[in-house]
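Re: [ENG-882] Designed sequences occasionally contain unexpected residues at chain ends

Forwarding the minimal case from QA. Structure tokens:
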């Protein structure tokens, strides 16, 4: 399935099929982590921002396309500044392997987020690192 000729739903279905065939337990783990992430207290715009940040950093073009579409479908963000803080904090979590500084954590909280939200970002990073790495390894991305 080519990136340029297949539709996004076809590409997504193809990625799921590849993972189900090659490592069903990895697919099951991702689905469980993704469901947990979707049930966090982070707002939908913030969750999609975490996912997009991980996908862009991992260069998973399928995930970038899929989650850009999901973010666009949510409509305008109620607070672009808060989303910028989510994106920046996600990058800091990735760069530091979770060992963000006190100042970085304080800046995230100053933007209206909580310590719980910070740990929920870590959950999203874990879930979508798994997904993006698996998509790249199976050549789905």
């Amino acid at each position: 399935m080519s990136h340029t000729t297949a539709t996004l739903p076809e590409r997504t279905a193809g990625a799921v099929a590849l993972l189900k065939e090659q490592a069903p337990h990895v697919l099951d783990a991702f689905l469980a982590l993704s469901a947990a992430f979707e049930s966090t207290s982070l707002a939908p715009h913030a969750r999609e921002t975490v996912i997009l940040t991980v996908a862009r950093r991992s260069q998973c073009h399928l995930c970038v396309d899929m989650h850009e579409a999901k973010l666009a479908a949510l409509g305008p963000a109620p607070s672009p500044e808060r989303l910028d803080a989510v994106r920046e904090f996600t990058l800091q979590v990735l760069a530091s392997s979770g060992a963000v500084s006190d100042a970085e954590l304080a800046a995230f909280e100053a933007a209206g987020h909580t310590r719980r939200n910070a740990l929920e970002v870590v959950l999203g990073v874990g879930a979508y690192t798994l997904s993006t790495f698996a998509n790249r390894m199976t050549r789905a991305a």
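QA comment: On inspection the terminal residues look reasonable. The chain has seven helices and no strands. Proposing we downgrade this to a documentation issue.
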